[in-house]
Amino acid sequence: MEALQSALQPLRPITANLPGPIRDLGVSLLGDVCYQTLILELDPTDSNCLKLAISKGLGIGIIGASSIVKVPQIIKLLNSKSSAGISFLAYVLETSSYLISLAYNVRNGFPFSTFGETALILGQNVIITVLVLNYSGRASAAALFVAALAVSAATLFSSSLLDMKTLGYLQAGAGVLGVASKVPQIAAIVQQGGTGQLSAFTVFNYLAGSLSRIFTTLQEVDDKLILYGFIAGFALNLVLAAQMVYYWNAPSPKARGKLPEAPMAPSPSSSATGSSTATPGTPKSKGPTTRRRG
């Protein structure tokens, strides 16, 4: 580590003269003390500041990835015009969980880097849920879903309508909802024997994101409700990822229904009777007649 610190020292004149916007961003992310230690002094030996910097980097990376994490899923739905393999109940539960968590984090004033992806994924979830309802022939239910979501958001973000104590209880329930939202999707995959229109990109990004969020929560947010929710979510995301790997090359249920059936081998009895049965191309032999001549 000392060798690394010595190698970084020639860069100090550069870090000491960073543009104002970059410097302000660094201070807002790391704080004055860690910015001084890691950026100005280029000292990577401070473990606390190093962990904070890693946590901030992971948080920003998760937020960046979450902006497109469900875009492949949306594209698959639009191209296929089918919601096969997508659990509507799973998305309703997950969307509800994310909405509550977003309100809880915002009203508690937690750093945006620890929950920013919640807002981005929430918006993508709404789009997917509406598409699933439309492709299931329930367009009116889609409009009702959006209206109910808007009313819920107005209530959750309003301190005059909902106090923090009640919101804390809802956050505990949101953790349960987040875990429960994975169960219908896991069950749907098992019942259908395949992942259908489920996006592998989305599943594996969720797995990596939930693991990273455990680390960032431990470093930056002293809230057990959020931590336990991420741990449980990671466990079920791991199950979904395992299903994705297991069913990777499995044909879809529709494709399995179109597979040609293997021809049945003739049974010994049918072959025996077939040998004594006259075929259309074989002339019949003339046997004796009982008609009297004369």
UniProtKB/TrEMBL annotation:
Identify the Pfam families for this entry. PQ-loop
Q: What is one GO cellular-component annotation here?
A: membrane
Tell me the InterPro entries matching this sequence.
Answer: MannP-dilichol_defect-1, PQ-loop_rpt
Q: Which UniProt keywords apply?
A: Membrane, Repeat, Transmembrane, Transmembrane helix, Transport
User: Cellular location of this protein?
Assistant: Membrane
Q: Where are the transmembrane segments?
A: 86-106, 118-135, 142-162, 225-248
Annotated membrane topology: Multi-pass membrane protein
Give positions of region: Disordered: 257-294
Q: Does the keyword Plastid apply?
A: no
Where in the sequence does UniProt note compositional bias of the Low complexity kind?
A: 267-288
Q: Which family does it belong to?
A: Belongs to the MPDU1 (TC 2.A.43.3) family.
Question: Would you tell me the protein name for this molecule?
Answer: Mannose-P-dolichol utilization defect 1 protein homolog
